[in-house]
Hints:
UDP-N-acetylmuramoyl-L-alanine:D-glutamate ligase, four-stranded mixed sheet, 11 helices, globular, binds adenosine monophosphate
Amino acid sequence: xxxxxxxxxxFDTVETPWGKAERVLGGSGTYAGFAASFFxxxxxxxxxxxxxxxxxxDLLVGRGVDIEGxxxxxxxxxxxxxxxxxxxxxxxxxxxxxxxxxTFEPVLPESYRDSRFVFLANIDPxxxxxxxxxxxxxxxxxxxxxxxxxxxxxxxxxxxxxxxxAVLLNDEEARxxxxxxxxxxAARMVLEGNPKLVLIKKGEHGVMMVTExxxxxxxxxxxxxxxxxxxxxxxFAGGFIGYLAKTGxxxxxxxxxxxxxxxxxxxxxxxxxxxxxxxxxxxxELANRAGEFVALTSFKKLEL
Length: 304
Ligand code: AMP
């Protein structure tokens, strides 16, 4: 099934206690596109400036991502910089420069308009709305966002939330969006609106998926060394929706499998800077790691 992703295509500068990567390929659309490409052929919508190296876009094309919907315009590309602490869960954003995003008006290529699965990755909610408006026949849509947009353009974000089937938030964003510290309560508050599914990401501690009928908890893959977690959330989302698009289904069992696909894909994202690990990753490797979760999560019912 066809999959459309809208998000940022960016220059990222990332500092961790173990190293620094400057102006490397990043962005929510980039990470989601890479992750989804292991399961389907994503169509990407985004914008870059004239300073963006062609080699970076070639990396996306090399993974089979369709970039016809990535516009190149005059001006500087979106730039983000962040620094991680020794506790890799703690991140400080050092810079967010919107640049070409400020005037970007997404125009979907004709060939994208019939997309059935849509992932609105982290980007200005006005742009997410504009993309939704241009799709003819969406079967399943999911939105990701960030504190930057929850604070910065809440009204537009609320309008997107009224139209999508699923919402992806990290724990901090869920608390901020719903004004409650309890994540299950926050998820249930989101479900009172249009969305039928809420996914709350808890970094290395995994993810909680909540629908009206069920709650599913899944851990992160236990990595001994995390090099750079930037884009892990977007990679989870890309793997999740990529798997749904591959199967064409959104029933409870498939949603749970999609969580495994997203979690496994995201674990590779953390093993190197930028999208470097994806360049070497094979589908066999990915399938084997996903299989490890069967043993990691199975246990016998207690005899009490
Ligand atoms: P994550 O680590 O999953 O939160 O994603 C980090 C990625 O999101 C980086 O590659 C950034 O370029 C991109 N990003 C950071 N801030 C924003 C923002 N405000 N809007 C859209 N994308 C962003």
